[in-house]
Sequence to fold (515 residues):
Amino acid sequence: MTNHYDIIIIGTGAGGGTMARALAPTGKRILILEKGDFIPREKANFDPQKNWVEKRYIANDTWYHKGEPFQPFHPHYYVGGNTKFYGAALFRLREKDFEEFEHYDGISPAWPISYADLEPYYTLGEKWYYVHAQTGADPTDPERSEPYPYPPLPHEPRIQQLSDDLTATGLHPFPLPMGMRMEHEGEEGTSSNLDLWPQFDGYPDPYEIKADSHVVGVRPALQHDNVTLKINSPVERLETDASGRKVEKVIVKTSVGETIEYSADVVVVAAGALGSALLFLRSPQDKHPNGLANSTGQVGRNFMGHNNATLIAISKTPNDATFEKTLALADYYWGDEDFKYPMGLIQMLGKLNEDMMKLESPEPIRGMTHAEMATHSLDFWLQSEDLPRLENGISYNSEGQVVFDYTANNLEPANQLKLRLTNFLDCIKCHPGTHKVDFYLGGFVGIPLGHTMGTMKMGIDASQSVLDSYCRPHELDNVFVTDGSFFVSAGAVNPTLTIIAQTLRVADYIKQQVL
Fold:
């Protein structure tokens, strides 16, 4: 049968792209299905007006939240998925993030796997995705079997001063672990320089410095003759055989209305935590009347996205850094003597410019022009853990519309983290007060879509989870889900490296136990 493959991978983001590269050397006939196209490499890639006002690269989707329609900033439907737009900060979850842990607003539940299960795959993922960092500098970094594969990115002078000032207060700033393809010291990668790329978070990278899953995963996979990529191929639904245990048809419906059926011995669903859940929900059938593998009603539920804040502080001296995304602070990750609960992580953003300031702050602050604001801003991302709640998630209503239900929780740690930042502004030579910059996060929607996790969580108890510890749905035999869906809790670090690591672990399982 022409349309039969050994393996079909749906999606090309951190899970799908990594899985494709991992399985390509098996020689098995692999089909990668991508809903979108390749993102064009063009000047508009780094134009704030094109990205944030004209929404050039945003999907033309309409979802609903509290009865109101909105156009989501995530997900992105391109080869590489959301990693084409991510900030490339690649952290490991801490050991305790995998354990049951008390938070201000409830319990963060235990995972069915431990940090030790993922450690070798974290190590491999850091090599594949060119992670630059300083081993031992992060006081909360978990134990490692090997040092980081590449040295940290150097701080520019104003960021080095920030690091020194924080250190002088007794804190422990460290180089942000970044997935960057830099051609220096014999490292394979792009010949471009970071000076060419001040716009970073939320922007596509035409220079391919950013280690995304298109460049790192899909492209190497396609060097194997047994791997085929089909773009503009949105999967409409999955169909099982009569037993309901095996997916036997992957049905694509193109934008021109053509329906194409594919089949495979193994199906890997990696359409993102939102896309994968929606695919399962729109695939009801006799054995799965509430959606595929959804007898517990958990598919699409337990969504997490972090309690994020993007803030600027106004430096008393100019910040001439071109690329300031090189520093992080985790001293408050597990709390402090004044607040015993975990608070989270502070890290730097890509540098905001005059155009972004005009979008974010129509009325200039402190009597400055927008250009002066940009020249003096220090740009921070604060990230705290939200907790899984069954009522938070994505679904279809009776009219077939995508509905997002989300009520924020565990907000006090985020408030406390912001307070810590505010309290040391004078020590880091900034004026009092911080100012919100929400365009990248889409904060005006009220849903944290920057880091999507948890919609098909892993677990041992099939009545309380969707996937087993190798990301196979309890109710299916030949399907694996490798994207942010499997998260049990969110931690307070960026989720991409954990998606990559678990994908590599699942790939090993498929190679050793399934193929």
Observations:
- The first helix runs from residue 14 to 23.
